[in-house]
Design goal:
Structural class: mainly alpha
Number of helices: 2
Order of helices and strands: HH
Radius of gyration: 25 Å
Strand content: under 5%
Helix content: 55-70%
């Protein structure tokens, strides 16, 4: 979106960085917590299948 964000010569002032630092750190912490929750869900073992169908075949 070049018409909205002209970032060719974009510079962030030191005052802005200083003022925003705590907010940025909080947002990064929140993102870490959300990522940890997603990774925890992804790492769970899948439910064990019903083995009755294997017993019939064997």
């Amino acid at each position: 979106m070049p018409q909205v964000y002209d970032s060719k010569n974009a510079k962030v002032s030191d005052a802005y960085v200083t003022e925003s630092k705590k907010t940025i750190e909080k947002q990064i912490q929140k993102a870490g917590i959300r990522l940890a929750a997603v990774l925890q869900i992804c790492s769970r073992a899948p439910p064990k299948s019903n083995r009755q169908d294997i017993a019939i075949l064997g």
